[in-house]
């Protein structure tokens, strides 16, 4: 179960928008596994950070087209999850 939990949450996303959301809305952004659903993400965050999750929002991000010389390709597709925590909980990412 421990390895599954760390396989679901890939990394926290530390961006300007994410920092604002964490302070104003108590919401944190994470990159998650593409096959993970909201229930799995909620359980993984609650166990990893010992917090109470109120809501989970997900978005599947398509890879961007990139070009190197004559060849074209795309960056990888990935999934983003914004996790809203209960009022008395917070996560220290920094």
Write structural notes for this entry.
This protein is of the alpha+beta class. The chain has one domain (2-85): 2-Layer Sandwich (Alpha-Beta Plaits). 30% of the residues lie in helices and 37% in strands. The protein contains 3 helices and 6 strands, in the order H-E-H-E-H-E-E-E-E. It has helices spanning 2-8, 16-24, 38-49; strands spanning 9-12, 27-32, 53-61, 65-68, 71-74, 78-85. It has a 4-stranded antiparallel sheet with strand order 1-2-6-3. Strands 4-5 form a two-stranded antiparallel sheet. Helix 1 packs across helix 3 (38-49). The longest helix has 12 residues, at 38-49. It is globular, with a radius of gyration of 15 Å. The chain starts with a helix and ends in a 9-residue tail after the last strand.
Counting helices, strands and paired strands, the structural category is alpha+beta
Shape: globular
What's the pLDDT, averaged over the residues? 93
Which band does the percent of strand residues land in?
35-45%
Unreliable stretches covering 5 or more consecutive residues: none
Return the string of H and E elements.
HEHEHEEEE
Task: Specify the number of helices.
Answer: 3
The CATH architecture would be 2-Layer Sandwich
Distance between the termini: 26 Å
Output the CATH topology. Alpha-Beta Plaits
**Sheet with the most strands, sense and barrel status:** 4 strands, antiparallel
Radius of gyration (Å):
15 Å
Number of domains: 1
Placed side by side, the strands forming the largest sheet appear as 1-2-6-3
